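Bit of a strange request maybe. I'm writing a small parser for structure token strings and I need a real example to test against, not something I typed by hand. Could someone generate the tokens for this chain?
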Amino acid sequence: MKTRKNFYDILKERGFIGQTTNENCLRQLFSEQKVTFYIGFDPTASSFHVGNLVPIMALTHGQRQGHQPIFLIGGGTGLVGDPSDRDRARPIMSRQQINQNARFLKKQVSRILDFSQNRALLLNNADWLVKLNYIEFLRDFGVHFSVNRLLNSESVKIRLKKGMSFLEFNYQLLQAYDFWHQFKNYNCLVQMGGSDQWGNIVAGVELIRCLENKEAYGITFPLIKTASGKKMGKTEQGAIWLDPQKTSAYEYYQFWINTDDADVIKFLHLFTFLPVEEIKNYARLKGSEKRKAKEILAFEATKIIHGQKAAEKARQTSHCLFMKDKGQGKRADLIPMIFLREEELKKGILISKLFAVSGLSKSISEARRLITQGGGYLDGKRLVDPNLLIKKDNFRGGEIILRAGKKIYCKIKVK
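Reply from user aminoacidic:
Good idea to test on real output. This should exercise your parser:
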């Protein structure tokens, strides 16, 4: 009979572990009992992006090992704003906007985590934070925090250089209170978070020790960067969102298939549920064979977020376009598409403007640079003139296909 792996060992083997408060105790804890653990997400946007995937994947790995994850929406802490890893204050958001974002995020993560029969809990810290009496909070909890220690926190040091509001200064106290509240009410023993959350997590561990004379634990994930040194999820086209309305399944698939060779194996460990033993086989691939590993990564990552059918369609589209570039096959019908009105084409539209309108470039000036440098294509032919005027005559069959770089496409049709 195959021995079930320890959840902690799975996280470590796959590259999720940055820092821990006590590695030996954590490994023992996860081997001895069903553990409730949590990760918090402040609802600062209406969708998660690829940069949020590491904690989401960690929650799911834990659930798959029989533990109980808590997905905590920061409806309360979002009103304050986390100063961690930032050189300026977050814009203050209204409760209405925060609540709306929280609803979208809840719906999104429900496609990945199973919340049935309490297999995972979805909580919102607004349910307890907004009810706090400030004087009582200071007397009962503020007394356990050292101002000197808060000032030495790395996130506070960074913010103090630019100016930090007292509102933000309270954030660590509130997050520590979150951990204590969940420890008391849900027997939550472990908090996980990004590397920038280390100080906040340790504060919660110490608050529990002071108030309850019991041990809780913390784990942080390393900051994931690509081989080029970019922060994960940041691209020339902007953030890669998990919301299909913001980033289509095809665009999502293309993001992963364009992974640098040096990142493929690391990303297979982090962003898929493939067994480590299988990933080791892909690590042996050399040269052009590495495309197979990229296709596996793109398909598995897309399947997790968009589902099996959408992943298969994205793969089919990618294959069709790849074969078309090789001079074979036929044009695919599944790539992102926008429409132009016929009257817009009477005077003609600059090709550089079309690249900006289609989202292949952030701006007309960026599109000009792309085309001038040889990275823009119209129906498979490289463009040389950013001032080329596109009219209705260019739309053979009522459509054209633009391409930025090697594999980012957009179809434009005439209404």
